[in-house]
Amino acid sequence: MQIVRDREFDEEAFLRIATGYETSELFVATKIETDGRVEFTLTLKILPSPSVTRYKHEDSQLAMYAEIAPRPGSRLFWAMDGSEKIGIAFAEVRAWNDTLWVWELHVAPSRRGQGIGRALMETLFGVCRTEKLRAIVCETQTKNVPAISFYRALGLSIEGVDTSYYTNTDIEKNDVAIFMKRRF
Are 89 and 105 in contact (CB under 8 A)? Predict the structure, then answer.
């Protein structure tokens, strides 16, 4: 396996790799707000049966990625097994706050658990170090406990919660956006 940089977003490979995830847990988000205090809580809950999430990629999102990929601030890496793309790390430098914003990080389902995601993230960490960026930022969901656990194992921590990032009923749906960060 090797990691290669690219400037062209390969939609077909992306759709084959970025399929979704399965989890037996989720974080339940709560928010309490009074005049003198605002509190967000994330509580891990075991599900009665595993939950499978399949990604639905909008055409507008794929078009945006194709537009972003060749830009100077874009960092697109593929994990390759010979000529086969088996993983993707797609990020963009945000110069205004010296961060690397991760748009997508995925490993083909049949190749998960082999260190490919870690190698892709280590490549992005290298970008942060080389370009003297202060942090890397990832967004995921309270339902995606495998991603949260993976990012935590790599030294990222939960630093933000947005209770209406996706819809106005994210808390009720148990699908709240969380932002994870690692400082350099």
Answer: yes
